[in-house]
Amino acid sequence: MGASTYSRRVSLVAVLRLSVLTFLADPQWLVPSLIAPVIFGLVSYELFTGAGPWFVLYAILGAGMMSMWGQTLYGSGWATGQDRHLGTLEPTLTAPTPYVYVVLGRVIWNTVAGLFGGLIVFVVVAITYGHPIPLANPLEFLLMFVFVIVTLAAVGVVFAAAYVYTRYAGFVQNVGEFAFYIGTGCMFPVVLLPFWSNPISLVLPPTWALDALRYLAIPGYQGFGWGFWWDMVGAVGTTLLYLGIAASVFRRVERHVLEAGDLNDW
Amino acid sequence: MTERSAIHARDVRRVFESRKGFFFNELIRTEALRGVDLDVDHGEIFGLLGPNGAGKTTFTKILSTLLIPTSGSVEVLGLDVVRQAAELRPRIGLVLGGERGLYNRISARENLRYFADIYGVPVVHRDRRIQEVLDRVDLTEAADRRVEEFSRGMKQKLHLARGILHGPEILFLDEPTIGLDPKSARETRKLIRSLVADGVTIFLTTHYMFEAEELCQRIAVLSRGRIVARDTVAGLRKLVGGDRTIEVEAYGFDDGEIQRLNRLPGVSRVMSEEFGPRLRLTMRVRTDELSLEQVRAQLVNHPELAVRERRTSLEDVYLDLVEEEAS
Fold it and tell me: Which of B98, B103, B118 minimises the CB distance to A6?
């Protein structure tokens, strides 16, 4: 065999296949992908059922978002941490395929898995309480739902870079998890948070995307008050910003770890 | 760089920095490599020996683009390992010893399928190539079992299979037989020889002297981050004083006796070592002229004297060189 050259498509498919196989082989994923969405969905419904159907939907969207976070963002970064743990980061980095494609493949898989997490919330609530959740614009809602996951994935790519950079990325991610739940408006409307925290919320793409999603789903929704399309501008802008950061950071991160020589530390 | 060089390294230095203390305010610098020069020819098995912490793995990682040297230049297959890493990576293979480096929850075949794809093995040949390497490392029967069920030896074979999967021109093996049972280690050595027959250049680090002696055309000894010797095994024997080693043991020798042994024809050096209550003198001898009778004749006052002769082993050479460097 001669010198090999990689194919982006083949590499992405390989990473997707590996992600599915390791997902199926590891029972710990049952928690974020199956159990957490069920619990989040049921608790949200029970808490807000007296506040009217649209407020229930508001809460359930937040619950769906929290479920998707676990799978999409957490999964993307965590997989790179696992590479460190297993010692597979070294043979993966010496491969001709740039590591960013490996991360991208994982993000695609986690996006799909996250989508399932979000859907589970809706299905569980519909089955348990005997009626489907009302949606003002179902088709647009579905498209927006996928876009929300893309915004989560953008943050996930940045976290994956952090995991390549340092084995301590998990600490930052775990701390960030609570900031995410509160800061993006999953649990409470962002406008209820202190004013000083608003800039933090606004640099997170899911904050904008979730607000836009609620505009689509809930008639008369006010949210930030600047309307659906400004939310979209914010969501697309911040997502591109995160993807841009990831693209420029990845090459530097690789250089850094090759200088530090700590790829095998975990 | 010579035309023949597969690896060409000049004045390679590597310093690791770490911080400790509550505020990470104490900087610790460890000099792992202190000016390594090395050339490895195409198609040879080159051995790098050295004690723990000598810098073998650091140097191997630099050669395989996993670590950037602090200074110096390194070319592998004519490509700079830092600036041309992307071009070099498809042409090299790396096998690091140990149990890590594999996805444990999936099968050996799935591991190889994944690495084949990201290492650029064409999809149309992939499954056939995987079967070839599985056959070659004798893992065909276990190919569809999860790696977590594998013994250490089987994992090591799988590491090797992954390393050769994409047909590298040069293969870096970092202690490939560590922890293997004798049968598996022998099979691994057989595989390494067969790879060389296929034209692959092998760069091998090992702690096992007999393995290096059996496999390597040339050997370098790395000690405290510096190459202290490099040659063929025969050349290294000459370097430490000869092919023959004569050992004498008794309950102590006086200085005069040791000096007399040192002056015998062909004796290049005499080293002493305590051995329980006894003292052992090890003599390196360059010629065949010196007989054991001549040695005994110098030590007539020791009725309990034991004298024996053996061929100087690579282990003798290695210990001489490393101890000399340490002192």
Answer: B118
